[in-house]
């Protein structure tokens, strides 16, 4: 083979390799473009990892919020249980919304003056004292309602926020709480449950209202028309409803009101068991 022929053969091989390389590059370019487009459309991995699931979001908000206490978390769970027992169709998302709603209510009832230091100081003049007592008593009634507390222990409550406000380093003492309690009693919104004025019974609903609520519950749950229409005091207390923790003395008074309204009849001579009437 001559030198000229060898050169031609070498050029042909080089041209063939160049053509193959260009074809490979052309095939790879669409793939690279497709990968770039996919990367643009997909969210960043760090963003996905940094965003907690809905469950975690709710849990974090409950823990980090200084207003939230164990009682309030328990109250949220109690309300969820009430919905389940009432046969209302609720989704998993609704359960978390319910927890958030309880937290929202607790935040909403906090008055604007809650972080004002002078609200933790008892006024000297009667007019200002009445206004001070009225403001605190209105809050306490709402606080008890949301937490489903029928009796509050002032020594326990004044250790909690906002009665013990660590943000401004102020708290109500026992005498102040008792002064507010006396105002609540004078307004017929509560009564002292002991002579030492430590436990305060709060009527954020009247007994008449509770009579209607219990009867409506019996109709919605089908108890009034079923074999479980008879309920004892113990059954009422174990029903897991907001009225289940009402003191026994008041539950008996509620039974009397329900009897007068024609909601029930007595199921025993001692009047400790009732039977719903339709």
Structure class: mainly alpha
Beta-strand share of residues: 5-15%
* Largest sheet: number of strands, sense, barrel closure: 3 strands, antiparallel
User: What's the order of the H and E elements?
Assistant: HHHHHHEHEEHEEHEHHEE
CATH architecture heading of the largest domain: Orthogonal Bundle
Query: Strand order, biggest sheet?
Result: 1-5-4
Mean pLDDT: 77
Number of structurally distinct domains: 3
Classified by CATH, the class of the largest domain is Mainly Alpha
Label the overall shape: elongated
What's the tally of helices?
11
Distance between the termini: 117 Å
Care to count the β-strands?
8
State the oligomer.
single chain
Low-confidence stretches: 43-68, 86-99
**What's the CATH topology name of the largest domain?**
Arc Repressor Mutant, subunit A
In angstroms, what is the radius of gyration? Answer: 35 Å
Describe this structure in words.
With 278 residues, the chain is mostly helical. It folds into three domains: 3-48; 55-202, Arc Repressor Mutant, subunit A (Orthogonal Bundle), CATH 1.10.10; 207-276, "Winged helix" DNA-binding domain. Chain C. Domain 1 (Arc Repressor Mutant, subunit A, Orthogonal Bundle). The protein has eleven helices and eight strands. It has helices spanning 3-41, 45-50, 54-64, 70-85, 92-108, 126-146, 154-157, 174-186, 207-220, 233-237, 248-260, and strands at residues 151-153, 164-165, 170-171, 190-192, 199-202, 230-232, 264-266, 273-276. The strands form three sheets. The protein has a three-stranded antiparallel β-sheet. Helix 3 packs parallel to helix 5, helix 4 (70-85) crosses helix 5 and helix 9 crosses helix 11. The longest helix is centred in the first third of the chain and has 39 residues, at 3-41. The model is unreliable at 43-68 and 86-99 (pLDDT under 50).
């Amino acid at each position: 083979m001559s030198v000229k022929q060898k050169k031609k053969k070498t050029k042909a091989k080089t041209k063939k390799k160049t053509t193959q390389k260009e074809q490979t590059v052309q095939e790879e370019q669409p793939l690279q473009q497709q990968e770039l487009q996919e990367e643009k459309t997909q969210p960043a991995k760090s963003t996905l990892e940094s965003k907690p699931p809905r469950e975690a979001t709710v849990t974090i908000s409950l823990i980090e919020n200084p207003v939230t206490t164990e009682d309030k978390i328990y109250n949220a769970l109690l309300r969820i249980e009430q919905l389940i027992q009432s046969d209302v169709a609720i989704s998993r998302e609704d359960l978390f919304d319910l927890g958030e709603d309880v937290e929202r209510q607790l935040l909403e009832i906090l008055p604007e003056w809650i972080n004002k230091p002078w609200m933790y100081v008892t006024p000297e003049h009667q007019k200002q004292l009445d206004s001070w007592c009225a403001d605190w008593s209105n809050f306490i009634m709402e606080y008890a309602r949301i937490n489903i507390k029928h009796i509050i222990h002032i020594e326990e409550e004044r250790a909690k926020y906002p009665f013990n406000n660590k943000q401004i380093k102020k708290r109500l003492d026992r005498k102040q709480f008792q002064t507010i309690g006396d105002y609540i009693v004078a307004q017929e919104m509560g009564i002292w449950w002991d002579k030492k004025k430590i436990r305060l019974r709060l009527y954020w609903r009247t007994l008449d209202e509770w009579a209607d609520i219990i009867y409506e519950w019996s109709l919605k749950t089908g108890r009034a028309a079923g074999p479980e229409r008879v309920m004892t005091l113990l059954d009422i207390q174990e029903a897991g409803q907001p009225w289940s923790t009402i003191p026994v003395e008041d539950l008996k008074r509620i039974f009397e009101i329900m009897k007068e309204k024609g909601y029930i009849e007595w199921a025993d001579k001692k009047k400790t068991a009732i039977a719903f009437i339709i």
